[in-house]
Amino acid sequence: MIRFSIATILLLLAAFTAQQFMPVFTGLYHSRILIVHLAFLCCAVASGQPLMLLLAFIGGFLWDAQCTLAPHPGDPSVYTQPTESLRFGYSILLFAAAGYLMQVIQPLFRQGKWPLTTALIGLVLMLYFTLECGLISFIRGELQIDRPTFLQILFTSLFTMPLAPPLLKLLSLTADACDQHPQPDVILRRRHQR
Amino acid sequence: MKPLNLIALLLFLGGALWALTRNDRVVRSIQASYYSAISPFLRTGSSLENHAREFLCDTKSAKTLELELRQTRSELARLKLIESRLHSLEAENSELRKALDFKQSTGFKVIAANVTRRNPTTWWQTVEIDAGSKEGVKPQLMVLAKDGLVGIVERSDNHSKHSSVLLLTDEKCQVAARVEGSPEVGILCGHRGTPDGEALLRLRFLSSNAAAHQGQRVFTSGRGGVFAADILLGTIDSVEKGALDSEALVRPSVNFADLGAVFVVLPADS
C-alpha cells in the first residue's frame, strides 16, 4: 500500500515536470494536453479514498503554485476595479471533487473496461474545466462560457483523453509490482480462466 | 463511512482550509519554491530545445544563409547610419534641454528577450521569456515589442534565466489608457475567449458621450504607477455607448499570435 502510494505521488510529480513541455495548440483555441489532471484522474480511479485525497491536495496545491497570478500592482485609486481571481488553493477542492467522481466509476476500471473508463475520464476533464472556467467567470461578475472557451475546453479534453490508457496500464503494472491490486475483478477472472 | 476515510477527509479539509487562507506574500514564496524546484528540468528542457533549434538552423542551405548574411550586412550598414544620425540628434536634444533648464527625462533601458514558451497555464494569457533575475528582470516591469506594449512581467524567480509575462490580452492585465487627440481616459484590459489572431481589447470607463471613433490610436496614460506614458496600445475598432459610461473595442498594435523578440524595460536605477 505504502509503495503504491509513493509510486502514485511520484507519477503525479513527474506529470508536473512533463506538463512544462506540453505544447499549446494555438490554432485550436489554445487547447493543450493537461497531463497533470490526467495523471491525477487515473491515480484517483486506481486508489482508495485516503490516497485520492492526498493526491488531490498535492495536485491542487502544486497546480495553483504553478498558475496563480499576482494581484495587479497598480495604484488602487486608478485601478479601482481589479479583475478578480479565485483564491490560491481552489484547485485542491476541484481536484477532490473530480477525484470523488472517479471513485464512482472505479468499478468499471476494476472490471477492466478501459475504453469506457477513458471516455469517462474525458467527460470528467470536461466537467472540471467547465466548472473551473465557470467559477472564474462567476467571480468576475458574470456566468458565461462563450464559444471559443467551450471549444478550448472540448479540444483540451479530446487531446488529453487518449493518453489515459497508457497511464492506466502503467498504474496497473505499478500496482502489480507493489503487490497492490487496483483491479481485483480482473485478477480473479484471470485466475478463474486458468 | 470508514473511520480511516473520515480521518482522511478531515485532514484534507484542514489542509485545503490552510491553503485557502494563505496571503499573497506566502503564495508568492510558495510559487518561488515551486519554480526553483523545477528549474533544473526547465533549464534542461530549454537547452534541449535550443540544441534542436540550432540543429534545424544548421540544416538550412548555405545559399540561403549567404543571402541572409548579405541582407543582414546591408541592414546593419543602414542601421549604423541611422544610429549615427540619432546620436547627433540625442546630443542636440540634450543641449536644448540644458538650454531650457528642463529636468532630464529618463529614457528606457531595455534588455532583449525571446519568447520561449506560450501559455504555461490553462486560462491566463502568459508567455515565458528567456531573461530572468540574472539579467535584472523583476516582477511588474513593462514588456514591449517593436509595435507597442506586450504586457507586464508577472514572475521572475531568483537566480533564474526565465520570467513569465502576463500579456495585454489577458483580462487580468489592466492598463490606464488615453485616446489620442481627445481627453478620454479609461482602463484597457483583455477580452476573454478571443483567439490570438482576433484578440480585441476592451477600453472601459470612457465617458458616456465619449468623443472616440474608429481608427483613433490608444496610448498608455502613465497613471497608476505601472506603465510609462505614451506607449502605443492599439487602435479603436468600435465604440459602444452606454447610459453611464462607454466602452471601446481596441485592436492591439502588437501581433500576439506572432511574438518573437520582446524588450523588458528595466528601472532607470538598475
Short summary:
The complex is a heterodimer of chains A (194) and B (270). In chain A, 69% of the residues lie in helices and 2% in strands.
Report on this structure:
The complex is a heterodimer of chains A (194) and B (270). Chain A has 194 residues and is mostly helical. Chain A has one domain. Chain A contains nine helices and two strands. Chain A has helices at residues 2-19, 35-46, 49-67, 90-104, 106-110, 114-139, 147-160, 164-177, 184-193; strands at 24-25, 31-32. Chain A has a two-stranded antiparallel sheet with strand order 1-2. In chain A, β1 and β2 (31-32) form a beta hairpin. In chain A, α6 (114-139) runs antiparallel to α7. The model of chain A has no long low-confidence stretch (mean pLDDT 87). Chain B has 270 residues and is of the alpha+beta class. Chain B folds into three domains: 3-44; 60-105; 108-270, Thrombin, subunit H. In chain B, strands 1-2-5-4-3-12 form a six-stranded antiparallel barrel. A six-stranded antiparallel barrel of chain B has the order 6-7-8-11-10-9. Chain B starts with a helix and ends with a strand. The model of chain B has no long low-confidence stretch (mean pLDDT 84). The interface between A and B is large, with 57 and 53 residues.
- In sequence order, what are the helices and strands of chain A, one letter per element? HEEHHHHHHHH
Mean pLDDT of chain A: 87
Major β-sheet strand ordering of chain A: 1-2
Report the structural category of chain B. alpha+beta
How many structural domains in the coordinates of chain A?
1
Shape category of chain B: globular
> Strand tally of chain B, please?
12
The global form of chain A is elongated
Could you tell me the radius of gyration of chain B in angstroms? 23 Å
Greatest contact pair? Answer: A-B, 57 and 53 residues
Largest sheet of chain A: 2 strands, antiparallel
Number of strands of chain A: 2
CA radius of gyration of chain A: 19 Å
How many helical stretches of chain A?
9
Total count of helical runs of at least 4 residues of chain B: 3
Mean pLDDT of chain B: 84
Q: How widely separated are the two ends of chain A?
A: 27 Å
- Supply the helix-strand structural class of chain A: mainly alpha
Number of domains of chain B: 3
